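Re: beginner question about structure tokens

> Can someone show what the tokenized structure looks like for a real chain? I only ever see the sequence side.

Sure, here's an example I had lying around. Input first:
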Amino acid sequence: MLNRFGSTALAALFMLGACAHEVEAPALDVVEAAPAPVTETWSVRLFDQTLGQLVATTEGNTIKVDYEFRNNGRGPTLAETITLGEDGLPAAWKIDGATTFGNEVHETFALEGGVASWTDTTGSASAERTEPAIYIPQNASPYTLAIYAKALLADNDMTLPAWPAGSLTMSAQDKLRVEGAGGPVAATVYALVGDDVDPTYFLTDEDGDLFALISPRFVVVREGYEEADDQLKELATRLSTERLETIQTETAHRFDAPLAIINVRIFDPKAKAMSAPSTVKVEDGVITSVTAGVADTAGAYVVDGQGGSLVPGLAEMHGHMGQDAALKNIAAGVTLVRDMGNENAVLSELIGKIEAGKLAGPRVVRSGFIEGKSPFSSNNGILVNSEEEALAAVDWYADQGDFWQVKIYNSMTPAWVPAVVERAKERGLKVSGHVPAFTNADAMIEAGYDEMTHINQLMLGWVLAPEEDTRTLLRLTALQRLPMVDLDGAEVIRTLDLMAENGVAIDPTYAIHEALLLSRNGQVQAGMADYVDHMPIAVQREAKAAWSAIGSPEEDAAYKGAFDQITGTIRRMKDRGIFIVMGTDLGGALTLHRELELYQKAGFTPEEILARATFEAADYMGLGDELGSIEPGKKADFFLVPGNPVEDLKAIKTIRLVSKGDTLYFPSEIYPYFGIRPFTDIPAVTAPSAQD
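And the corresponding structure tokens:
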């Protein structure tokens, strides 16, 4: 306003002076007023709702950013101050706040005297500035994309080297018109690569300013354009799908003759042992023979396993499948996923693409997610306001014909659960779930659960007061009370006896609890240590960040003790014969390898773990006749590793080949598309015409 009115007054003065020749206008000392601060707001959209905001206020060369959203009772809270240099690149960056699970963020960056220095959870470092470069924060809001966009658009090839490592590249993908309260926007869509395993898709307006961050589920869009949510999610899905379809075309191998894999030892999950050197033959996606020694391979494509091990495809028993994760799971030998709750239409579309061979992905067993409506709801699946609506949700899932179970979530009213369980079983569906707020695991077992989800949900019943609300982060922070629990006391024995007597299984999600309770700032998480050096810089830095807020030495000791208590509980469950399923809730893929490895701490042998993660998991879900073992007549779902996982379970982390039905994949061909350095070589495939 000051600029506008000031400009008008000066214009009038100069006009009067031009007309009144007899009067000479006095000289004026004009002082330019500083530009007024400019505030921009974006809405954070998830599951067709606005769950938070991103707000940026620019004053001169300084930008102050506030970012917060909440879903399922949790989310990040960040405040940033960014100072831009004359070249438009950040000269200073300060970030404070907390991550989704509460870890405190205090990150700084400064460029002074040609030296860049930064401090984050991994520690402090510095580097000389030898050319224009841009800082990649460890924990920052989506406003980072506004900074990247301006910097990269000003660069000839839209590529800049980055600190702490690597480079950022931006490429135009599409153009589109977006309607909203501020009028139509002619937006350009870009893909950003270099910092993480997947591209980041975002939109700028005509001036190159940030308009939206987009993904198939999560959108951050300029305020006033929330109605474009579906348009933007569909765009993100299309871009991701086109990329993944290209990868599928270039890495999926199908053969016009049978396939023979020779010189391999086969893991038999029923015998829990490795076979003698053998040959496995496959035709049309089905195993036709398993023969000791080298069988006749005439007319077949041949892979020499070189004495390695052939293992049935792994089952990830706690997934929330998306199309990016689908391909990564295949590369990690995961050929079967139990999806534990999703956007129903989105998952249906993904399964259709996988079954049609357009995208790579595991076979999927579906769970129907049912959640009560509350301020803390996980906005997924079907949300209900009454027992009648909950029963209708059960009927809807049963009517679809492709759901194996229903899953009950945190905000479900406990009094509705018995009726929901009864209806589900009448309709032929299993029941699993969290423990809803204001009840405990014993009550859910007595109500008829077939399976408990997450071991923290079960164990909190031993330490919480009835009025404490587990729909918040309390369901994680209260775990520091677990060291006070006597695992051989009456309360624990009652719960475990109830499970054993009623045949109730448990889905502990062991690895996510390791990350929650044992990760510490500056230390590589144990679960990522074996592969982190192969990953892009953002993943490497994530590996050195805590998940939970550790405020004192006492809290540090309590969280460590809580993990020991979880391990002790799982061990006692195993000893009682309670069926334990192995899944991550972390996307599966490489994290499933860690999930399996951890069960050795609870007394499982490698043979028992591999059996549980293959045939026993498939059989638990009614698929044992067609999946889970390498036998004639079964689907050809297996993977090849150089080592022997019975002797050292870590051998499953180095995969040379994955077969899913009639398609063969070589992970070392797939990983470079995600910025991941391959773990091993690619085995040669000898065509029938090349054999003597």
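Each token stands for a local structural state, so reading them left to right follows the chain. The radius of gyration is 29 Å.
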